[in-house]
Amino acid sequence: DSGDQQWRFETGEVVDSSPTVVDGVVYVASNDAGVYALDASDGTQQWRFETSDIAEVTPAVVDGTVYATDRAGNVYAIDASDGTQQWRFTADDAVTTSPAVANGTVYVGSLDVYALDDETGSQRWVFEDSGPIHESSPAVADATVYLGSFDNNVYALDAETGDQRWRFETGDSVSSAPAVVDGVVYVGSDDDYVYALAADS
Question: For residues 194 and 179, what is the distance between their CA atoms, to the nearest angstrom?
Fold first, then answer.
């Protein structure tokens, strides 16, 4: 209510990640190749997980697990309570999208789109027909994965199989993350436009 600083925590490098706050803990990634868990009340570090490269995207926290990525192409599942690694999956290129977790599956974009088992990290499917997926974090709704690509398209994929349901071509790269509300996909493009697309078609 006052704007006064309550605490400050220094990671030692640029923080491009947005914080994720769950059950009184702030989870945030840093360009110092670390994912941090901080007490939300006073900023005390609870643990730090070391990634193999810059970690710049927002972690997802679901059911006691932190899902994070790095520029080396790694996707990590980290125990939210103590920061220990549960599994790691390595994609074909840097992963610069935040993971989306739904119905036991972790979805991430790299040069391709991956669906991973949330408990083991094993690959369920890969979609290879898109261009590079950078910055456009997946959105999952009604058993469909929506995301934008640097090949100028917005893709809708079957969440269970990875099959393409449709694609919509914009005038330039799509680096914004889609939002899906009431049957409409809202997404921005580098062509200076925002689009509203029918989610089913």
Answer: 11
Query: Between the CA of residue 86 and those of 40, 80, 91, 120, 173, what are the distances in Å?
Result: 24, 10, 17, 8, 34
Residues composing the chain = 201
The two tokens of residue 176 are 């914004």
Distance of CA 161 to the CA centre of its chain: 19
Helix, strand, coil shares of the chain, percent, nearest 5, are 0, 45, 55
90: nearest Cα among 112, 72, 68: 72
Q: pLDDT per residue over 65-87, tens digit each?
A: 999 999 999 999 999 999 999 99
Q: Enter the pTM of the model.
A: 0.94
